[in-house]
Amino acid sequence: MQDHSFSFSWLPLARRTALVLGTGAVLTGCASFNAQPLTDEELRTQVQADRQQLAQDVAPLPATVTLEEAIARAIKYNAVQRLRAMEEAVAQGTFQVSQFDMLPKLVASAGYRYRDQELITRSQDSVTGRPSLANPYISTDREAALYSLGFSWSLLDFGQSYYAARQNADRALIAEERRRKALHNLVQEVRTAYWRVAAHQALQAPLRSATQSADLALTDVRKVEAEKLRSPVEPLRYQRQLLENLRLLEVIEQELSPARLELAALMGMAPGQAATAWRVAEPAQGTSSTWLQRPVEDMEALALVRNPDLRESQYGARIAREETKRVMLRMFPGLSFNYAANHSTDSYLINDSWREAGLQISFNLLGLLSVPAQKRLADAGVALADQKRMATQMAVLSQLHIARLQFANAAHQYERADAIAAVDQRLAEHVDNQVKVDKQTRQESVAQQTASILSTLRRYQAQAALQSAGSRLQATLGLEPVIEGSDRLPLPELTSAVGQALQRWEAGQVQ
Q1: What is the pLDDT of residues 155-209, one digit of tens each?
Q2: What is the Cα–Cα distance from 465 to 411, expressed in whole angstroms?
Q3: Angle, vertex CA 103, rays to CA 377 and CA 326, nearest 5
Q4: Which helix (H) or strand (E) holds 359?
Q5: Residue 180: is it exposed, middle or buried by C-beta count within 10 angstroms (0-12/13-18/19+)?
Q6: pTM
Q7: What is the DSSP string of 48-73?
Q8: Do the Cβ atoms of 252 and 453 come closer than 8 Å?
Q9: Which label site among 115, 211, 262, 389 has the fewest CB atoms less than 10 Å from its CB?
Q10: Which residues neighbour 371 within 8 Å (Cβ) at sequence distance 6 or greater?
Q11: How many CB atoms lie under 10 A from the CB of residue 437?
Q12: DSSP structural state of residue 121
């Protein structure tokens, strides 16, 4: 009886060795695969590498930072802004790659085949049905290689790739609009944090002086209470007032102390760099009300054209319409054409090099069953995108009116806070003069100093709120600083460009 058990002893030694090693490697790899958690050393190494990457090419902070430079540093070095820029670059790269999908396919291939026995066949007479009297014959070599260079093109694939490329182009534009929105939010946060740092700088010396005066006054009042020369109620009331003033001064210090770290983080600086000695240059307080003098209708028209949220929704609606066209394209039959040049090393072939061409049309008949559902789904997507666009339009108009009203209210509140601060400052000077001639007590001087510091803080807070409201209005109008190649510009040039953009905004000019 013939043994039909599998054996590969007929293979040459080199082939048998390669087969055994390859099979063993595959089986060993499958059997030994386990989840490999990151080690603490790997995590520390990665964190250190990330910190070095973030700090790479970041210019050191100067002794004095202007508002223009703070915004420029945030645009150039902020990690979130860099992330948005990379997302935009990836979306743009996806669009560029998808364009190549529209090209025909040109495929070069090479193959090898091997048989352990000769391919021997018999023949049969097609008329009589009897076996041929000729001996069985061999028509192919046991080993042969085939080389081919083929060209193929499908009309249906081209159409699908065309609309997919157009959708990817709109997605790249959406990424750009999201980066613009991130820039709006970044500028708003930088301007608010900048004025908080300016307030901390301006109030540090008065806070220290008022705290020292309050401590001295508290010591005097406690001595008076201990000597029992007066009614105990009056010294306790003074202590209560002084302690409340000290608490307010400490609250102010605690509120403003993180401002430097916040601004440094927005500028892309490490916490250690934020602790270095640097200051902000306090610009002129107040802001121009030029935008409040513009007609609301003009601002609405500008927002409907420039607002990034609305532009993103419009691109989304266009993507939905392109998806409808892709669905409709599936209803058409597929037409494909191919052409190839081939060569074989089979010695039995008389024509071992040949060319072949083909034309094929195909149509998925059962696919017609899903076309109505796909069409309804695509139409629903278009309707949803259109509804989202209209809802975004209404939201943008509402945001514009709210931002304009907040800007007007913030300007009014700043004027009021500035007037109160000026009065409290003059009043504190008069009280100090009266204390020097013993017409007022130290406790009253501390109370007035605390009131003056609080009103100055409120003026800075009103200024920060005014800057934030102005940035919010600017973001709603879609008027971010338009700076070409901001990621590649040197920091001084970027700072100058940001300064010019802020000047145009203050002048009421559309960028």
Answers
A1: 888 888 888 888 889 988 888 888 888 888 888 888 888 988 888 888 888 888 7
A2: 9
A3: 10
A4: strand 353-362
A5: buried
A6: 0.72
A7: HHHHHHHHTTPPPP-SEE-HHHHHHH
A8: yes
A9: 115
A10: 327, 330, 331
A11: 7
A12: E
